[in-house]
Amino acid sequence: MLYHYLASDKSGQMAEGDLEADNLTQVLQHLATSELRPVSVKAVKQAKQITLGFGRKISMTDKVFLTKYLALMLKVGTDLLSAINILIADFDKPAMRNFLLEVRENIGRGQPFYTAFEAHRNEFSPTFVSLVKAAEASGNLQETFERLSDELLRDAELQSRVRSALIYPIILVCAALGIMIFLVTFALPKVSGVFSQSGIKPPFFSQIVFGVGLFIGNNIVALLVALAIVVGGGLLFYYKTDVGKALVGRFLRKTPFIKNVYTQLAIQRLASTMSSLMRAGLPIIETINIAAETVGNSEFRFSLNRIANEGLAKGLTIGEAFKRESIFPKVVTNLIAVSEKAGHLEEVLATLADFYAANVDSSIKALVSLLEPALLLGMGVMVAAIALSIIVPIYQLTTQF
User: Fold this and answer.
1) Torsion of CA 348, 350, 355, 361, to 10 degrees
2) What is the C-alpha separation between 218 and 243, in angstroms, rounded?
3) CA-CA distance, 265 to 28, in Å (whole number)?
4) Strand boundaries in 191-291, DSSP class E
5) 101-112 pLDDT per residue, tens
6) pTM of this prediction?
7) How far from chain centre, in Å, is Cα 200?
8) Cα–Cα distance between 237 and 228 in angstroms, integer?
């Protein structure tokens, strides 16, 4: 268990710290051997592993807040342990408090600062962990946290623009499903019942729509449960297995329009990650291997691994190794080769990251502008088909009297 103590030495000066011990007696013995007189000794609640769920996941906003305030505190001269204690007092979210308590516990045990981030790679990317590790070794944590804060803000803005662009299509899909469920559960059964009681046979097209509608209406609960199971299982398969990620990635790479956005987003992540890691002073082979893990594209990952482990490791230049991989656009490989010779690779990669971030934004807007009328058209066709299947036989029915 972790204990936090406040004690005084022979000269009356106060000392404060954390100590890992099995019980209170061991803490008091340690203080006695250190010639410290205990004033206060309190057990610190052990940090729990961060789990998914409401209020229990570290969000992008939390990471921006954490990096921004750590940078500010270190800039004004606050030591790392005191900065962590201040953040613990300010954070109310359980996931962040637990994580910060874990950081303080690691520091109290004498472990490196980056190990707490490394233990939670679901929340902190390999790039984040590597940058903190390099900064801790070089002693420039403040500058690194400032850069991380800026990069996280840019990523958050890009994600926000993507979500905003997709809100309207999602609303259209939900509206179409709602209308269809209403029609097949309320309208179609009543109209079909009228024809069944009157003995009049509706047109063949209407019979098909009535049959499908009645089947859906009679089994709506089972169908919704099955849909929820399929969607939930698909999400788990994607997030929990490499095969799921590979299949989704292959689908995105082969789908028209979407594949351009997917590729541009992968290049933006690659350029941003490489620029940050190179600026932090990491070796180029390690930089490219880390970028391969964060790029989010399996084909890019394999190519980057070959560049690092088969190209650079055998003496090729960065430009030569990239040009051997045809998956990267010519403009990217040419810029990398030219900037490497000029000695400005970091700056060019940062510029590429900004350029492709803007491209992703505009490409998503163009995709949504195509998707919206297609969804509206599909929604109109569906409603029109159901409406005609109802109106036509009713008209026939009225003309017979």
Assistant:
1) 160
2) 36
3) 56
4) none
5) 888 888 887 788
6) 0.66
7) 57
8) 14
